[in-house]
Structures are given as C-alpha cells and as structure tokens.
Amino acid sequence: LRIPGNTIDLRGQRVEEALDAVDRGLADALADGIRVVFVLHGHGTGALKQAVRSALRGHPQVARHAPANSDQGGDAFTVIEVRA
Fold first, then answer.
1. pTM for the predicted model, two decimal places
2. Which residues are within 8 A (CB) of 26 and not within 5 positions of it... i.e. 6 or more apart?
3. pLDDT-based confidence at 1, cuts 50/70/90?
C-alpha cells in the first residue's frame, strides 16, 4: 500500500540529487522498520527512471525492485523491498 510515508517523490530532480534522495529514503525506511518503499520518478524522458533502477541493482539495502502494478501507479513508480 502506497502512502506518503513510504513514497520518495523524485519528480523535477536531476539524477544525482534523485539518487541521493533514494539513498536517504532507503536509510530512513530501514531505521523506521518500513519494508516497502515506492519511488515516484514519473515517466518523462525515462532517464530518471532508468538511472534509479540501474542504481538499485546491487544496492546493499535493496532485496528486490520492480515497476509498480498498474493499481499502484504503474511504470511511473518503482517498488523496492528493503533488505532487513
């Protein structure tokens, strides 16, 4: 279930600042016991989505990630399962 407390909104950010926001968001989620995080990168040109998903591969705090289901915002979101 996507709520403001587990959603990282990256819209309008450049790649570098967006990746920093994802790192901070994942660290906060881990500290708060949140195990599922939604990253809102939007559609746009796809560059931000691609950069985020690429950075998540092999990320130490990420158990897995995938595009959100259509009822959760679809491909404008990436859903992350946080590694405990």
1. 0.94
2. 37, 59, 61, 62, 80, 82
3. confident
23-to-1, 12, 66 alpha-carbon distances in Å: 21, 17, 17
Q: What is the pLDDT of residues 24-55, one digit of tens each?
A: 999 999 999 999 999 999 998 999 999 999 99
**CA geometry: angle at 1 spanning 25 and 31, to 5°?**
30
Tokens of 60: 């130490």
Per-residue HEC secondary structure of the chain comes to: CCCHHHEEECCCCCHHHHHHHHHHHHHHHHHHCCCEEEEECCCCCCHHHHHHHHHHCCCCCEEEEEECCHHHCHHHEEEEEECC
